[in-house]
Amino acid sequence: MDPITVIRSRTVVMPSTNIDTDQIIPARFLTTTVREGLGVSLFADWRYDKNGQPKPDFVLNQPAARGCQVLVAGRNIGCGSSREHAPWALLDFGIRVVISTEIADIFRNNSLKNGLLPVVVDEATHEWLLAHPGAEVEVDLPASVLRLPDGREVTFPIESFSRYCLMNGIDELGYLLSRMDAIERYERAREGA
Known about the structure:
The protein is α/β, with parallel strands linked by helices. 33% of the residues lie in helices and 17% in strands. The protein has one domain: Aconitase, domain 4. The protein has helices at 21-24, 44-47, 85-93, 105-114, 123-131, 160-168, 172-178, 180-191; strands spanning 6-14, 70-73, 97-100, 117-120, 136-140, 145-147, 153-155. A hairpin with a 5-residue loop joins strand 6 and strand 7.
């Protein structure tokens, strides 16, 4: 995983509500355990026509979406079934941050464990972001602050362990492995007890 500290990016806006994980990455693409290459299937049923051609009016197919690392979604993104492939597909496409007023718990947890930062904001901030697609924002993970181009700073909640892992580019296993010396010292001390 790539570490996250401060991300400066234009936003891409998908105002749809209740975007479920099957819309993010349809079940037919869950046959792999490899993270790379899933970005092409991100929102496949929305991005492509029945012949597999990109729909030019879909937001992620438009030139303005290229290079955007921040997705602003409608309320309740990530609902539905649990699948790590959803954050994998977003990350492979280039999205590093998802912003909404409500992010489904399972999707939020899968995102945090896989290097995608879910940011929950208040209604007023969300409405501003939805009304200003392409706005240049700054997401400051160490400070837990979203900075808007109009100068506003909006704090967002994130537990300290998840922040630590994201900032260091590690998952839970990586964290445990980074503490291996202390774990082995503890185990050796217990052997003699």
